[in-house]
Amino acid sequence: MPATPAWPPRSAPRLFVPGPLAHGSVIGVEGNQAHYLAKVMRVAEGDAVVLCDDLTGEWAARVAGVGKRNVSLELAEKLREREQVPDLWLCPALLKKDRFDLVLEKATELGVRAIRPVVTRRCVADKLNLERARAIVTEAAEQCARTALPELVEPVKLDALLAGWPADRALFFADEFGGEPAAQAFAQSSRPAGLLIGPEGGFDGGERAAIRAHPAAVPISLGPRILRGETAAVAASALWMATAGDWSK
């Protein structure tokens, strides 16, 4: 006798929607999400869609109806509670748009809890379209099956970031001039963590001195090569997840 197929199937579309979600409720999606379900994924009545609301967790829903501009979904089963992601803040200096898009996407996939962009003297950009950035992290969270969106805030200047840094949170500073090997520093720390990554041209001398003087700062090395800003952000986040995050659980 053939096995009963898993429900919802792993191929079911995933969407973040406003919450809170509850068993038996019917919600409607419109705009780009409705177009994605109806025209790209070609869902039909009875098909499964997985929904998250960044509040209650992950839910399986059935398509209740497909209209020209909207899709109705009925909540059928709660699949998972909202996950507790590791307490890692990524604080990357702003980069050129396509490179910073990559940082947003990969940081979300890697599981960081918060993305807190920084403006430094050598940044080529000083502004971030927050609505567009949130769309990027939401799409990445849907793709990688996160149930919790990373917190994303407006960029702040480096001096403001340092002034407001919590005393109980380690500030791992990726310094191209050297520091403790990153894996070793991450493994030895039991505090909540933040990763500070510089821009294309690196931090200038005054910025480096100010960071190193901060009581929470831990200068780290990411190896013998000078990495691009986006490479450093992704590499450091992955290394932290492997040594102090949830990759080994």
Walk me through the structure.
It is built from 7 helices and 14 strands. The protein has helices at 31-40, 97-110, 130-144, 158-163, 182-188, 205-213, 229-243; strands at residues 14-16, 26-30, 48-52, 58-66, 70-80, 88-92, 114-115, 118-119, 151-152, 156-157, 170-174, 180-181, 193-197, 217-221. The chain has a 7-stranded parallel beta sheet, with helices on both faces. A 5-stranded mixed beta sheet has the order 1-3-4-5-2. A hairpin with a 3-residue loop joins strand 4 and strand 5 (70-80). Helix 2 runs parallel beside helix 3, helix 2 (97-110) runs parallel beside helix 7 (229-243) and helix 5 crosses helix 7.
Summary of the model, kept short:
The protein is of the alpha/beta class and 249 residues long. It has helices at residues 31-40, 97-110, 130-144, 158-163, 182-188, 205-213, 229-243, and strands spanning 14-16, 26-30, 48-52, 58-66, 70-80, 88-92, 114-115, 118-119, 151-152, 156-157, 170-174, 180-181, 193-197, 217-221. Helix 2 packs parallel to helix 3, helix 2 packs parallel to helix 7 and helix 5 (182-188) crosses helix 7.
